[in-house]
Amino acid sequence: MNKRIVGNNGPEVSSIGLGCMGMSDLYGNADRSESIATIHEALEKGVTLFDTGDFYGVGHNELLLREALQGTKRENAFIAVKTGVLRSPDGGWIGMNNSPQAIKNNLAYTLQRLGVDYIDLYQPARVDPNVPIEETIGAMADMVKAGYVKQIGLSEANAATIRKAHAVHPISWLQIEYSLFSRGIEAEILPTLRELGISLSAYGVLSRGLLSGKWSKDRQGQIDFRSFSPRFMGENLEKNLALVEALRGIAEEKQTTVAQLAIAWVLSQGEDIIPLIGARKRTHLEDAFGALELKLNSEDLAKIEAAVPAVEVAGTRYAKEQMAMLGVE
User: Taking the complete model, does pTM exceed 0.70, yes or no?
Assistant: First the structure.
């Protein structure tokens, strides 16, 4: 397993990370034993980066990760935690709170659920419009000084917010969606990260499964998060699946899969980019590990970009209301 550095002079982590959200939330029921086996498989293959959130499954995901990491040396698991999103007892979404009090309170519960003394990287899941980012990062900086947090990150923040946050305390990474189907960050956000020496933690590298090469029109209407995603609806889905088929032609030439090609493309965009692979089953990891062996040259990259022009992707990555909350594209 190759390594990549978090931030300017931060720790090394595996070149891909395991995103654990789907084991607890948003994509339907997951088998607990298979989820734990998937985390164990990742560890065995050299994955050291595990991404979770205190609101994933209303704490379920942190407890699951704790169980799976039992017996693992603490220094062999880089745990990144998102916070700030509020949930109701029925699992509903009821806003966000990134106030200093909430940040410190949430961290206390996270440490207990994970059974650890510190979090490797702590980040607000979204930018709270009611709390200045300086106050949120200031509270996290207090937790760094106290030894409860090692690194601070951001998620779904625009360039101006990144600069404000970085002025309070060094930001180690920005977590945001980035894939062949989601390239909006290339205009302003990615150059800002590189100017400041901040890594990119790229999630959604398979665009919620569209770039897996396994999605079809027959699955339209599947009841999970994707039911509300414009990219999976009607004509948008047809257009996007046509792009996937164009990518499949290149994958077949390279004797690889569509998913491996899509992951390898993200990996090839810079050593400062660390893709997160969302997996609920061990079989979901196969494409990720295969992508690590796939080397793309300039000719390959030109073919891929010609087959999947960013302007041809149909539909936004979230519904209109959620996109408005992000404020990054």
Answer: yes
